[in-house]
Amino acid sequence: MTGAAVVVERLEKTLGKNQVLRGISFSAQPGEIFGLLGPNGAGKTTTLRIICTLLTPDSGRVEVLGFDPRTAPQEVRRRVGVVTAEIGVYPRLSARENITYFAQLTGVPDGDLKRRVDAVIDRLDVGSFADQRAESLSSGQKQKLAIARAIVHDPQVLMFDEPTSNLDVLASREVREFMVESKARGKCVIFSTHVMHDAERLCDRITILHEGRVVASGPTAEVRGDRRELEDAFLELVGEVPSPSPGLPPKGGG
Amino acid sequence: MRTVWIVYRKEITEILRDRRTLMAIGLAALATPIVLSVISQVATKTATQQYTIGYSGSIPTGLDELLRATSLKLVPVADPAAAATRQVDIGVAFKSGEIDEFYDPSRQSAQIADTRLRTVLGQYSAAQAAAALQERGIDPGILTPVRIVAHPLTSPIQAASNAFLSFFLPYILITMILTGGFSAALDSSAGERERRTLESLLLTPAPRSRILLGKIGAVTTISLVAAVAAIGSMFVALSQLSLPKESGIGHITLSPVAVPVMVWVAILIAASFSSVTLALGTLAKTFRQGQAYVTPLYFITIFPASIILFIPDFNPSLAYYLIPILNAVLVLRDAIVHNAVEWPTLAVTSISLIATGALAWYAALRLFTREALLTRS
């Protein structure tokens, strides 16, 4: 698809004896929040890990801003930032040191390092705890730190894998606001979640995965159809409740 | 190199803020003087220990003086055989022209007293015989038709010191390198998985081979710091402790040849061990699991050092120098005891240790790039 930041085509992946992905396809554009939805075990995290070069697909094609993760993993990593639910930070380094370390590893030039780190600290309001050791931070502060670390090299593609699952209401809200702000800056934001309420509010388009397959894809409103909430459509699609009426959008329409 | 330096600096910062590693280095510096102090006390006690001889009958003239001078205390008893079982270390019955000795060979004190008694009696008999010959106008020299004139090529006390060092120094060096880097290596490998920073690290465009080199460099540095702390404190302790003359260990110094060999071998062992422990740590999901994988390495280090202790004159062929750790111990022994470096053995040792480190680094790199590292639950 022309202009797409991320293209995924017929992706298949088996982990151990479990076929996690069974030919999924979608694409995500710059300046949109693209939702990757599905119950636990649907294949969301595996898909994101393939996009960001951590895993290699068995078959299918992935392209990130024109780069193939298999042949140009370094180029992809320079252009992608990932935030996950498992907030791993170096506990004995301060928040600032954590961010600086990742800025250096992602190739931020020494001359620009301080300015970039300070800018990210300001943008995410990390200043009040920037010089505290990460081991003393709250979950919300750690998640802010994880986001700061993921965006310090100014990636064009941002991937959020269940970023709010371990956060309280306030911290979750700040993460959501950040996603919206990134979209406004023209970033391609891929948001993986099983929280339908968040997806409905934030995502321009969504793809719903179930057992490694795409069961619905398209603009969020279109997938929801005439149901009261996206959650109702989701439950019908994953087979938890019977479909009351035909008319759900076709697969792979993203 | 920039990536290696970035990772190295970060790892060093984290390690220096880790209480576990600082405690390991502190213990390394403290443990050696404590062990040496115990050795010193035991050696002093053994050398000055007084043993008791229970005797009956008349002591030959002058013998009592000689016995007392050798820390053998004489105590009159009614039955020397009975007394030797418990009351005294050995029992002696002085008879005319004969001495009956009673001792229990299963008691170490009895063995030592027996040796001392025989030495004193030998000297006493020789002196008596010499006096008798002189009285008759005969040269006592006929008792020793072949005289031995010793010309030791090195100081016997220095030789004893070197023998002590040839066991103790490699042992301290190797165990402290492993102990000092143990916690840092696991924190740097298994710790990345345990605190869930591994995924973020692997998402950076930094080449994984260089990330590993930075980590190995940091662990090597900490291992060497621990070894230097231990060896430094060992020499400080040796200069302060008074070891008895009888122990044979005098003032201990390292020869000019041994110092550069020790530094070179220490760097090789530290780098090699760091690679091995990092590879093992990468296999582990948690610090605790990593400990279980790495602990057996201790036995591997103790074994070669023990060979030197039990077979001091072990003179192996060049092929033995291919065995990591054993080769380091042998090269250090040669440098300390013989005050010489055999270049072929040093070359083979260096190649062996570098190859071990490189293989372990490659194994760690393969593990570091395995998908299972992230997907294995």
What do you see in this structure?
The complex is a heterodimer of chains A (254) and B (377). Chain A has 254 residues and is of the alpha/beta class. Chain A has a domain at 6-88 and 156-237: 3-Layer(aba) Sandwich (Rossmann fold), CATH 3.40.50. Chain A is 35% helix and 24% strand. Chain A has helices spanning 44-51, 73-79, 95-105, 110-123, 139-151, 169-184, 196-202, 220-224, 230-237; strands spanning 6-15, 18-28, 32-37, 59-64, 80-84, 157-161, 188-193, 205-210, 213-219. The longest helix of chain A is centred in the C-terminal third of the chain and has 16 residues, at 169-184. The radius of gyration of chain A is 18 Å and the shape is globular. Chain A starts with 5 loop residues before the first strand and ends in a 17-residue tail after the last helix. With 377 residues, chain B is of the alpha/beta class. Chain B folds into two domains: 2-43 and 156-375, no CATH class; 52-141, 3-Layer(aba) Sandwich (D-Maltodextrin-Binding Protein, domain 2). Chain B contains 15 helices and four strands. Chain B has helices spanning 2-16, 19-48, 63-69, 80-83, 108-135, 156-188, 190-194, 198-202, 208-240, 258-283, 287-294, 297-310, 326-337, 343-368, 372-375; strands spanning 51-56, 72-76, 90-95, 98-103. In chain B, strands 2-1-3-4 form a four-stranded mixed beta sheet. In chain B, helix 2 packs antiparallel against helix 6 and helix 10 runs antiparallel to helix 13. The longest helix of chain B has 33 residues, at 156-188. The radius of gyration of chain B is 29 Å and the shape is elongated.
Beta-strand share of residues of chain A? 15-25%
CATH class value of the domain at 6-88 and 156-237 in chain A: Alpha Beta
Major beta sheet, strand line-up of chain B: 2-1-3-4
- CATH topology name of the domain at 6-88 and 156-237 in chain A: Rossmann fold
Number of helices of chain B: 15
Helix content of chain A: 25-40%
Q: Choose one word for the global shape of chain A.
A: globular
Biggest sheet of chain A, strands in spatial order?
5-6-7-3-8-9
Low-confidence stretches of chain A: none
Overall tally of structural domains of chain B: 2
The SSE order of chain A reads EEEHEHEHHHEHEHEEHH
Q: What would you give as the CATH superfamily of the domain at 6-88 and 156-237 in chain A?
A: P-loop containing nucleotide triphosphate hydrolases
